[in-house]
Design brief:
Number of strands: 2
Radius of gyration: 17 Å
Order of helices and strands: HHHEHHHEH
Helix content: 40-55%
Largest sheet: 2 strands, parallel
Length: 171
């Protein structure tokens, strides 16, 4: 495994560094792996649930021209608290790794860092709003019952996109 700071320390810098080291061969392999997975599962769609691509949207669209995006919007306070609680447990298990990067932070500081990260992600998505209007759908996490949330985001059963209305201005 690589010894690098956690991606949340600076998600934008992480994305930039990741893209700078990518080659056309890497992109071809990624398309091949996703395509193979899709064929093996006999899926019509490939769902990748990752916030790491937020700062890579231009590149994702370059290598997956037919990509569509589901923006699962959660209350930023819930997101920050949830991630901070999980990260605090990781820090407790391996404090030396986090201390090496100056990131062995108390949970209240983690909440603030994750809130900033969430804000930056929302700003990045909004930056692409006009260009991606037809490519993006929005679901609000809080309005989905738990059984539907898991069913709709199950890679084996992609969400029924035609029934999800396209994202409009901040509604």
């Amino acid at each position: 495994t690589l010894d690098v700071p956690p991606t949340w320390a600076d998600a934008r810098a992480f994305a930039r560094a990741s893209l700078q080291t990518r080659t056309p061969a890497d992109d071809a392999r990624l398309r091949a792996v996703f395509g193979a997975y899709q064929r093996l599962t006999r899926g019509e769609y490939m769902v990748n649930k990752s916030v790491l691509i937020t700062f890579m949207l231009d590149h994702v669209l370059k290598i997956f021209a037919d990509a569509r995006f589901i923006h699962l919007l959660r209350d930023g306070r819930s997101v920050a608290l949830s991630f901070a609680e999980k990260e605090a447990k990781k820090i407790a298990r391996n404090p030396a790794k986090y201390q090496r990067y100056g990131l062995a932070l108390p949970q209240d500081e983690l909440v603030l860092r994750f809130a900033e990260n969430w804000r930056d992600q929302m700003a990045e998505i909004d930056r692409h709003r006009d260009r991606m209007r037809e490519l993006r759908h929005r679901l609000r996490h809080e309005t989905l019952p738990p059984h539907r949330l898991h069913r709709d985001l199950d890679p084996e059963r992609p969400p029924d996109l035609p029934r999800v209305r396209p994202r409009g201005d901040h509604d």
